[in-house]
Amino acid sequence: NGEWKEDIIHGHGTFFIEDRSKFVGESKEGSFYKGTLTHPDPYNEKFIGTFKDGNYGEGTLTYNGRQYEGTFKDGYFHKGKLTFTDGRIFTGEFDSGHIVKGTMMFNDGSKYLGEFGLNEGSEPKGEPLGNGRENFTEDDIITGLGILTKADGSKQKGYFIDGKLDDEDEL
User: Fold this and answer.
1) pTM surpassing 0.90?
2) What is the DSSP pairing of strand 8-16 with strand 98-105?
3) Which of 65, 93, 137, 165 is surrounded by the fewest CB atoms within 10 Å?
């Protein structure tokens, strides 16, 4: 149910995909350009925005209780804001969908600004989004240089390992 040009999708319409996904929006020369793409159960994923090279480009993605707003690179989170199901909010940079550098706001009012990494022994997980798969891992934690501002206003600055300050330097 949409516009076609020389046997390829081109223009505005509603398109249904074999996996029961649905796209509503604009397409150009056979590819989705901008609009809304929804993936049903078990993914429960909805993307509103632009597409680039067959992947998400820039927009808002809601999935499994999480919401990401920002840009994507090769189908992975790149630069943006990720709100977790527990209320934490990360704003910053990602590499292949993993949190790399930025600010994490915690529910208790504390805030961390700095670098992130994977838990020791964790393997990077995730595949490019667009197929309903998770794009990041919950194993992304505070690892690297940063500043942790606690809810009481006290600060810790230095190198963090697995969420703990290695060489404490109270400010």
Assistant:
1) no
2) unpaired
3) 65
Q: Residue 36 pairs with which residues in a beta bridge?
A: 24, 48
- Nearest Cα to Cα of residue 89 among 76, 99, 97: 99
Give residue 95's identity as a one-letter amino acid code: D
Beta strands in the chain (DSSP E): 2-5, 8-16, 22-28, 31-39, 45-52, 55-63, 66-73, 76-83, 89-95, 98-105, 111-118, 140-149, 155-161, 164-165
Which of 167, 150, 149, 171 is closest to 159 using CA atoms? 167
Q: Are 145 and 118 in contact (CB under 8 A)?
A: no
CA 48/CA 121 separation, integer angstroms: 35
pLDDT digits 0-9 by tens, 148-160: 999 999 999 998 8
